[in-house]
Amino acid sequence: MKKVTINDQVLPALGIGTWEMGDSPKVREEEIKAIRAGLDAGLKVIDTAEMYGNGRSEELVAEAIKPYQRAKIFLISKVLPQNASSHKMRQSLEASLKRLQTDYLDLYLYHWRGMVPLAETVLELQSLQDEGLIRSWGVSNFDIDDMQELWRVPNGQNCVANEDLYNLETRGIEYSLLPWQREHHVPLIAYSPLGRGPKMGSTMMKNGAVLQVAEKHEASPYQILLAWVMQQPNVLAIPKSSSSKHLLSNLKALDIELTSEDLQILEQAYPKPDHKEPLAIY
Ligand SMILES: NC(=O)c1ccc[n+]([C@@H]2O[C@H](COP(=O)([O-])OP(=O)(O)OC[C@H]3O[C@@H](n4cnc5c(N)ncnc54)[C@H](OP(=O)(O)O)[C@@H]3O)[C@@H](O)[C@H]2O)c1
């Protein structure tokens, strides 16, 4: 099983995304079932944010994880840029903890950069960590210049992860950011690893090269897309699924080893970047 290490914790390289979950009472039971199916199968990481459904995703996560030992789960939430100041961050975090019905987060991410000076945000994140309200902190939607700036800020190098958009058809970060993160031992949390799925217009799962590799591994195209994201060292993929059937099927990606021939086939359909591209963001 592929693993990733974040803040000295060894975790399965597949986590559970929760954007747009908790919004509809009609599918709530199935969403809870899906999260629990993932946890029962050994997944540990759950990714949520104060932004998702204005806190409804965090509330759904709280309900889903209630029967589980808190220590067995690696809980990530995120602070909005407008709340990432010394005045507001603590209040935001406390509200997230309340909605999540827990007294700590394993990882708190700065969701994306806003107007607050980076040094102020880092100072506040560090003091929340020192108090034990968060076990670690990281960033999201940071490009290489943001990471370099972060590394120059006092305590900036305590950042334990960067969460960015990354999938087979969105490979821009491979040009310089991913090598930088590898060199500086900063794991990547790959969001939208399925390009938000076919309902949101992704065609990767119908691509001939993906289907060819899937057939060879007797796998689904979704499993191949996730295995591709996770074949990079220290990359955690966090697909979202409101369906326990989909979620359990996605889990098999953890054990698919893509060969160099597979990678070449996929590379021909989706070439890696040969120049710096602007950071892709949802
Ligand atoms: N930090 C950030 O700024 C940021 C931005 C975006 C996302 N995220 C995080 O990353 C997570 C994942 O990204 P995402 O939600 O944007 O998109 P995604 O995980 O790339 O795609 C989700 C879509 O794929 C479908 N899907 C998943 N597994 C499937 C399967 N086996 N068969 C068929 N369909 C399948 C889902 O449908 P079903 O539900 O029907 O299975 C859903 O429509 C988010 O939930 C969130 O936690 C973070």
What is the domain tally? 1
User: Could you say which overall geometry the principal axes of the C-alpha atoms support?
Assistant: globular
The CATH topology is given as TIM Barrel
Pick out the low-confidence regions: none
Class by SSE composition: alpha/beta
Radius of gyration, taken over Cα atoms and rounded to an integer in Å: 18 Å
Q: What is the CATH architecture annotation?
A: Alpha-Beta Barrel
Helix percent band: 25-40%
The name of the CATH superfamily reads: NADP-dependent oxidoreductase domain
Outline the biggest β-sheet.
8 strands, parallel
- Beta-strand content bin: 5-15%
Quaternary class: single chain
Describe the model:
The structure is a single chain. The chain has 282 residues and is an alpha/beta fold. The protein has a single domain, classed as TIM Barrel (Alpha-Beta Barrel). The protein is built from ten helices and ten strands. The chain has helices at 28-40, 56-65, 89-100, 118-130, 144-152, 177-183, 208-216, 221-230, 244-251, 260-269, and strands at residues 3-6, 9-12, 16-17, 45-47, 74-79, 107-110, 137-140, 162-165, 188-191, 235-237. An eight-stranded parallel sheet has the order 3-4-5-6-7-8-9-10. Strand 1 (3-6) and strand 2 (9-12) form a beta hairpin. Helix 1 (28-40) crosses helix 2 (56-65), helix 7 packs across helix 8 (221-230) and helix 7 (208-216) packs antiparallel against helix 10 (260-269). The two termini are 29 Å apart. The relative contact order is 0.14. The mean pLDDT is 98. The structure holds NADP nicotinamide-adenine-dinucleotide phosphate. NADP nicotinamide-adenine-dinucleotide phosphate binds at residues 17-19, 47, 111, 140-141, 163, 191-197, 199, 222, 238-243, 246, 249-250, 282.
